[in-house]
Amino acid sequence: MSRFAKTPSAETTGPAQRAADRARPRAHGLGWRHGAGALIWILAVIAAGLCLAPYWQGIGASVGLMALLALGMILVTGYAGQFSLAVGAFYGIGAYGSALLTMNFGWAGLLAIVASAAVAAVAAYLLGRPIFRLRGHFLAMATLALSEVFFLLVNNLEITGGSSGLPLSALNVFGVDLFDTGQHFILNWLIVGLVLWGCLRLAVGREGRALKAIRGHEAAAASAGIDIGSSKTRVFIASAVISSLAGSLYAHQVMYVNPPPFGVVTAIDVLVIAVLGGMRSPWGAIIGAVVLEFLHQGIEGVLTQLLGSAAVGAGQTLVLGFLLVVILILRPDGIVGVVEAAARRLRRNGRPTELGAPPEAEAEYVTMTQARARDDAERAEQGHEAGGVVLSARGLVKRFGGVTAVNDITLDIHAGEVLAVIGPNGAGKSTLVNLLSGNLLPTAGAVSIENEDFTGKPAHVVARHGLSRSFQTPCLFEGMDVLSTVKVGAHLRGRVGMLRSSVPTRGALREERELDRLAHAVLERLSLGHLAAEDAKNLSLGQQKKIEIARALVANPKVLLLDEPCAGLNKAEKKSLLVLLRQLGREGIAVLVIEHDMEFVMAAADRVHVVNFGATLKVGAPAEVQADQSVIDAYLGVPASETTQRAQAPTAVQALETEAVR
Ligand SMILES: Nc1ncnc2c1ncn2[C@@H]1O[C@H](COP(=O)(O)OP(=O)(O)OP(=O)(O)O)[C@@H](O)[C@H]1O
């Protein structure tokens, strides 16, 4: 049973719930719209395949193959943000695999297609892990080199026929030999439809969210339990299989393979399609492939008329290159991005925005100190006590070159306690949290969760053992709504993999609905339900901070690390957060919070750990720490008596502030 299921406050009803219901962005299921869409696609493809003139059938079949290659690229580059140009190599593996297996070994065409795709998958698996350690232009160069190496190999090997290539027979599909271009047109576009559907389903599923989280912020994705290396490799394999399939179809269509189509030029062509159409949506592949073909035809016609046919080849490349630069400058999200922006504007005009205060009504105002006093009384009534040690750090040291950011820190966090870590700017607090969460490797020392050693383990492994965190600067993901952002945090509460996300089974859809429910419950708890459908990146800093906390909470953690959660929150929101942290403590969660707001710290914490110059200065109860002269000198800068008075009795200015937020 989940921890949230035990918490009645997580399953609230009322105005906030109704607002969240309105904000619920999508239902998960395969309704009539999916069936109707698929039927329209199939009928349109068959009609076009039968009615088009042979010239256009041939062009259309080739455009379908380019769209297929662009779909593969969008998975890796658009979804996961990994700039890969290896498409030419996998396209070639499919083409040469089909040619060799059918002609040299007498395999059936369909079997050869499957076997070639399997070879591409194995190659992608073996290359994926090492290659995706690289980033940015290094990754682009390495993947481009793969295409070039493949080109050189097939150009020089005897078995592949060198530069002369290999002949191929027509593809036999269930007893029918596909010679006709119309047949190829239909086959290619039906497969494009199938892959498009899978990519669209993947985008809204658990694995698609994981890929987008990786694209948006790798550290945040890892802290949500996503195994970055594995996700990148698996999407690379999916992309390789799609490219290989396109290669096999291409080989059977032209019934001949030679090296030129599988080098760098194809990779660049596919990149142009994906950029033109839009990298972030699989529709970009379809739109980009069709528009690029029309551009090719148009430019060819104009150049022939203006400069003669001799100018067509180089002229086309020049004009398209120029066009690509213009698109990248003006609309890097391509045609789909333009359409989506227009649709968003229309939607926004059609409804009132509710991005301000959450739809909650607070009946009574209490100060932070009073909220703490109430919580203490309830704890005493329930006989609540902090449990055993959940997270433990021993002698942690972190050096960045000559800077020792964390210097021999030892701490324990108990189940059910709120531990505040305070200290001046640059004291090493965030570095300490990064060491505890596995986002940084310690130079020395050890970290354990429930007595199990996690020193040096990556963040996704630490997350699997119940540690969740938020970041000092909110790490949200481009183009993701609030609900999906929070669902990224529930990654470890689901199990559906890439294939089941793309071809959703009933179990996969059920799981998605359950993740929806969990995310909505946490959003409600943080009074964010009404924002579920908003783009998380467009919200205020305070709201973004709360979304991060929601993303951490939905994982059902044993330990929660919050890095400056109050930044951007108003007084009422800080008080709600204080109440939430105290509640979490009562539920048995160990909470570590870094915070500069002393009123909040003194009211929220059971213990305070003061850090100065990377080392522990003082650990103790809030009042004890507040009264300590070394802490006053190093950090508080205000005599203990004054600070206490300030926390207990608000000044006239604070009284006015508190009135204003009632
Ligand atoms: N990746 C890094 N490379 C080099 N130095 C770093 C790195 N990260 C942190 N530091 C240094 O380590 C020290 C501690 O930084 P850290 O961000 O942990 O402090 P902090 O207490 O969280 O500060 P703040 O309250 O301002 O967030 C600082 O001197 C900082 O410049």
TrEMBL record:
Location of the ABC transporter domain: 391-638
Topology relative to the membrane: Multi-pass membrane protein
Protein keywords: ATP-binding, Cell membrane, Membrane, Nucleotide-binding, Transmembrane, Transmembrane helix, Transport
Classification via SMART domains: AAA
Protein name per the record: Branched-chain amino acid ABC transporter ATP-binding protein/permease
InterPro entries to which the protein is assigned, alphabetical: AAA+_ATPase, ABC_AA/LPS_Transport, ABC_transp_permease, ABC_transporter-like_ATP-bd, ABC_transporter-like_CS, BCA_ABC_TP_C, LivM-like, P-loop_NTPase
Record-linked PROSITE patterns: ABC_TRANSPORTER_1, ABC_TRANSPORTER_2
A single MF term (Gene Ontology): ATP binding
